[in-house]
Amino acid sequence: MATASGDVSDHALVSEEFLRDPYPILQSLQKEDPVHWSEAIGGWLVTRYEDIVPTFKDVNLYSNSERLSKVVEYLPAKSRAKFKTLEDHFRATSLIASDPPDHTRLRALITKVFNATRVEAMRPSIQAIITDLLDAVEPSGKMDLIRDVAVPLPFSVLGAVLGVPSSDREEVKRWADELLAFQGVNKPPTSVLEISQRALVEVRAYLGELIKEKRRAPGNDLLSQLVAVEAEGEKLSEQELIYTSITLLVAGHETTTSLLGNGLYTLLRHPDQWEALQENPTLLISAIEEMLRYESPVARQPRRVTKDTVLGGETDSRRPDCFPNAQCCQS
Q1: 84 and 10: one domain?
Q2: pTM for this one?
Q3: How many Cβ atoms sit within 10 Å of the Cβ of residue 199?
Q4: Quick check: is 130 in a domain?
């Protein structure tokens, strides 16, 4: 299989230009090579809707399990052994790295306490956090949306919801950012993996102690409720509690920051839509849904192919990883 499609070189897929503006390259792939193998990425890139849909629906063939643990597989055995903690963490079963029936069980337990009713009850506290952030910048008459709102807002909310003491939130946020450092980087250097692994060790130890405290003295926060939740005789294990908390803190804050930034950027690029939203605020919910679709904060979702298959007319059993949404992950 060729490693280039038309004018798209394999190197282009890991270039700074691609990171700045991936759409011209993705559109070229979508037209000419919609299921594209990239040696530089070490995976398949899938760019057409009709090919992507099966990779989301058929979890027996396109699995979520262990999809991020492959980050270290490109390393020589000796170097790879240094990152056993990181690899084992992402190889373990968790909410975003599992398939049914494990995923079904975990989701049922988590949504029992983290549901629409609870989110609605959080509205006053979220509004208070937003008001404080806006009040802080009002005297200057200007703001940096990302720095002043999009970054502090989601983590402040998530920290408060989970029951992370306010004095610890900056450090927990640093761990979350460092744990994300390797994700989205093709074959990341060992220096980046070291940062992510160190952060993982520290945040797991911290959350382990926090969970013990919630067992001794439970509060009204989400973590206390997750500690106590039970459904059909099942409970979250200690490891599952820690992994779930990491997922909420890490994935929750970064995606919300991206949504806020991408959403405003998209509105500014489409002033007619911005004016329509101002004239009719009831459009806000559908506008947010469209922002999520049009300029998604999660632009790629890796999947691990579990057996030989054909997708979009392509098959190669030596290259067992398929990454939908033009996504890539290390292999």
Answers
A1: no
A2: 0.80
A3: 20
A4: yes
